[in-house]
Design brief:
There is one protein chain. By secondary structure, this protein is mainly α. It has nine helices and no strands. It has helices spanning 2-16, 21-32, 35-59, 61-67, 71-98, 113-125, 129-140, 149-180, 184-205. Helix 1 packs parallel to helix 8 (149-180), helix 2 runs antiparallel to helix 9 and helix 3 (35-59) packs antiparallel against helix 8 (149-180). The longest helix is centred in the last third of the chain and has 32 residues, at 149-180. It starts with a helix and ends with a helix.
């Protein structure tokens, strides 16, 4: 059980720590909204990682093989979603910057915590490479179908906890960023930086 716990933690941090488009969007979302919304969004990402870890431990080679034929269309779908988010973030930032003197009624409402959770869950699930990553770790470590279900459960839970802890750290950083950059110029700049990073990463996904 200890080996499964350590393996799950290592796997969870291994997939979560590299800062990509989802992490960038999580930080930007928290900076624009609230820590509560960011926490829910972070848990959405961690839930997707946990689900993929579960699928990998249960399905193993069969799941990884089944996903390979659809990796390309799903990668394109993920890239399109990220491009849409980048464009929306930039346009919204410009509109808020130009209309700062208008009534607050004209500003679009921020996403609710539940919507943030579901959005980040869906975005992360569009990355099927995650399940291939977990399947490779599980199979490479010799943890196939012969592993006790309890060890599989520990592995999945540890992967979820590791991912959640890192995503919550990013959300906390986004909350601090939001408090530090309270001015309109600062928020406009950070929105453009976030949109730019997401655009670059989305283009790289299709390369």
């Amino acid at each position: 059980m200890t080996a499964a716990l350590v393996a799950g933690l290592v796997a969870g941090y291994g997939i979560a720590v590299p800062v990509g488009a989802v992490a960038t969007y999580l930080v930007s979302l928290t900076a624009r909204t609230s820590l509560r919304t960011g926490v829910c969004a972070a848990l959405g990402v961690a839930t997707a990682d946990g689900l993929y870890a579960l699928v990998a431990t249960v399905g193993g080679t069969a799941v990884a093989a089944a996903l390979r034929p659809v990796l390309t269309p799903l990668r394109w779908a993920s890239a399109l979603v990220l491009l849409a988010l980048a464009a929306r973030g930039a346009v919204t930032a410009v509109r808020r910057y130009r209309a700062h003197r208008l009534s607050a009624h004209t500003a679009p409402p921020p996403p609710s915590p539940a919507r943030a959770y579901l959005s980040l869950l869906g975005i992360t699930l569009l990355n099927p490479a995650t399940v291939v990553y977990f399947a490779a770790l599980v199979l490479g470590a010799g943890t196939g179908d012969s592993v006790h279900p309890l060890d599989q459960g520990v592995f999945v839970m540890a992967a979820f906890v590791a991912s959640a802890s890192w995503q919550l750290l990013l959300a906390g950083g986004g909350a601090l960023l939001g408090r530090a950059l309270t001015g309109r110029p600062g928020r406009l700049v950070t929105a453009f930086v976030s949109s730019g990073v997401m655009t670059v990463l989305a283009v790289r996904m299709t390369g």
